[in-house]
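Hello support,

Our group uses your service weekly, and this is the first time we've seen a run hang past the timeout. The protein is Helix-turn-helix. I'm not sure whether the cause is the sequence or the server load. Input pasted verbatim:
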Amino acid sequence: MPSRPDAADWPYRHGVTETANARKIAFATFVRRALDDARAMRAWSGTEVSRRTGVSRQTINRWVRGDWASDPEAERVVAFCEGLGLDPAAAFVALGWDRAAGPRADPTPPPMDPDVEALLRRLVDPNVSDAEKFHIRETIRYLAYRPTLPAVVRNRGKQAG
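Update from on-call engineer: The timeout came from a worker crash unrelated to the input. Re-ran successfully.
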């Protein structure tokens, strides 16, 4: 394997370091995978991702293309990740912002409800029809995003009358 020249000796950098390009590619890959997962698992469009994360479609598209001159704003990266249920630390690693911390051990996820596990198995089962998967996703979406009543209102129905 040929050795790479030291970055200081690299004659073709023209103000752009190899590290900056690698960070752009790594972050673009992270964002692209997050979008692909949102489309596949939640059937979200780019507009829906933008709405749920609070990050404009234009910004997300620039991230996917690696078309940014200065680093993305940390607040937007966090909003994007949280809107998609992702750990922002993974995005920070892709951006090269978390070098001092070193690799982290993945925390043990909390135990999953058996009913939720059964639904997830059905969503990835190739023998389950697309119509059935669509129905499962729509039901989950309804339950996940329906407004919750204040505790006072919920408890009214439980009072003996």
